[in-house]
Amino acid sequence: MDSTSEKSIKIRDIISIAVKRKWLIILPLIVVTGFAYGGTYFLKPRFQSSTIVWIDKPANVSRELVNLLGRDRIVRESDEDQRRRLRALQNEITSKNYLYQLIRELNLDQNSEITRQAAKMRERNPSFSLEQLKFNLLADQLKKQISVSSVGADQIQLTVESHDPVQARDMVTTLTKVLEQEKTRYEIETILDNQSFADLQLKKTEYYYKQVIDSLTDAQMRLMQLQLPESISSESNRSDIISDIDRAQLEIEDYKDDRQRFLVELKELKLDRARVKYSDSIVELRSEIDAQISLYASLMEKYAWNAQNVINVNIRLNDNLRLLELIIGEAVDKQYASYPENHRDLLRKYFVVEERLDVIRSRKSKLQQSLVNIDERINQLPRLQAEISELERRVADARRYRDAFRSEEATVSILSERAKDRTKYRIIEPARIPLSPVWPDVKKIMMMGVMLGLLIGVAAVFTSEFLDNSFKNIEDVEELLKLPVLATIPKIEKLKSIR
Asked: Which residues have CB under 8 Å from 489's CB, separation 6+?
């Protein structure tokens, strides 16, 4: 026994203490691990999507000229040069030009939280527009979400983090497309700027040719959108719609006559100021009728007048009108129950005519608007077809001029085309939708929770053991009494049962 009175701890004693106070270890382990696991559900996950892009090094001169100048030797890029190139590429991709295109392409500025933040900033900076502040906020956030790294010779990995896995994939794909477009455009412009006047003319004709092609494509797309099926644009279908409008007008005149006649009779009975209270069922049914009228009119621009789906909507509309008459009649009977039957019957007819007149006017107006839309689309077709013919002529002229410049400057054209091919960035590994978040790492958090729980449990065991002044073993008794222990009596667990 040492004179310093320090307790000697043996492996067996440690195991005994751990077994005796096992709950002090188990409980913190379970609680802390449970809290760690549960806490992951309160953390907003971050998903990461990436793509690998191969970057070709464009050559501004032909291979023959490179061989003549002796520049065909491969120069290995140093680590510092590689870091600088990646840093420059990172700055380029996170520049406002790239980020604005990304924001516009994916409509990232439609986020309500960004709009609220921009509105608060605009209170302090009224000279800036709301859109400008939204773009600035989004640009600052996106810079932190985008990273560029090198994964091989002339290969980079573009990585984007987002709380939405689909958005992460879309952002990487769009950024790659923007990168390819911007780098290709820049490199081609660099080549063309160093060429002769003929090359400059070739560039202009190529650009003009692309513009004309785009204009022709746009006009053809507009033509496809304007063209109506024969069943809709036919004169017979238009006649059917016009007949429907004319019938509606005749019904309006008849209902106006009926309303005037009923109103005269009501004045004689001094009931011309009577009004019916609209119940919830009347309001709901009337809203449904208005929606069916709008649907009926819109279908006229997509289907023929006698198409089955148009007929079905018309049938449902008529059924609802008859139901509306019944509900109005019930409302009149309930509201004017004390009036004679002939008075109530007159009131029912008057209020039904009022509703019928309002419905048929709405139907006529919607049908007229649909007919106007159809006529506008039909009338625009000749002008658009003439525009397409003119654009086709301009495309042929632009192609002829382009081919002429290519023939005139064959050598320069070949070099330019080679350079264009080399400037393209090629995607080696396309972006995918991440299946699991990169943060929080549930396994790592669980492991840390287990370790922390064990640490707390072990600390609790040592603390309780340190504060426990009872005798643990024979050595503790001998140390306290300064006397040797001659014998020990084991604890008899079943003594009470024996007695």
From this structure: none
Closest C-alpha among 366, 365, 276, 364 to residue 324: 276
pLDDT in tens, 278-287: 888 888 888 8
Give 223-276 pLDDT, tens digit per residue: 777 777 766 777 777 787 888 888 888 888 888 888 888 888 888 888 878 788
All CATH 3.30.1890 domain ranges in the chain, comma separated: 47-196+423-429
Cβ atoms of 176 and 51 closer than 8 Å? yes
Task: Identify whether 484 is preceded by a cis peptide bond (ω within 30 of 0).
Answer: no
Class at the top of the CATH hierarchy for domain 47-196+423-429: alpha beta
* The pair of three-digit structure tokens given for residue 123, joined into one six-digit string: 């209170």
* Long-range contacts of the stretch 473-482 (C-beta < 8 A, 24+): 473/13, 475/1, 475/8, 476/7, 478/1, 479/1, 479/5
Which segments within 128-278 are labelled E, that is strand?
146-152, 155-162
Compute the distance between CA of residue 173 and CA of residue 178 in angstroms, rounded to an integer.
9
pLDDT digits (tens, 9 = 90+) for 396-441: 888 887 777 666 555 555 555 555 555 556 777 787 887 777 666 6
